Prior knowledge:
Blueprint lengths: L2 H25 L3 H33 L1 H23 L13 H25 L3 H25 L3 H22 L1
Amino acid sequence: MSFFTLIVLAVALGTDAFSLCVGIGLAGVTRRQMLVISATVLVFHIFMPLAGWFVGEFAGSRLGRAASVIGAVLLVYLGAKMIWATLRGGRETVKKIDFTTWGLVLLGTRVSMDALSVGFTLGARQVNLLLTAGTIGIVAGVMTAGGLILGRFVGRWVGERAQLLGGLILVGIGVKLFF
């Protein structure tokens, strides 16, 4: 996988956190909360692909090409799901923000589940582990901070469009990995 493709993949994975954090930013957050939320998402976006990576690598060694195809189909599914949720207006809204440790763990887990699936795909394709996980984590952390900051200044429509774009990108990458 080229570095450009890796960056595009990382941005696609970060759009879920970005779109959710636009909503959180609209509700109002302090700078300290922005830092804690961004760091949490960064760590989860490193950990989840690593966990998926090891499962994918194991499956890849056992299943060969089938594991790669399964991973590509999974990416297309995740992207289509993001697109569908955006088109039907199912974007999450933030009513009560829970900044406790448990709330942050739930937030980190929620926005990085797609990174777990991507880690499975990448493990089956044998790419550079540290570069991939680090890039995904850093990009997701930056996009989270960007979403929180942007949420203070703009309306909700930005988050919905970001999620739609992220879904389209995931579908595109999944199709590319299939062939």
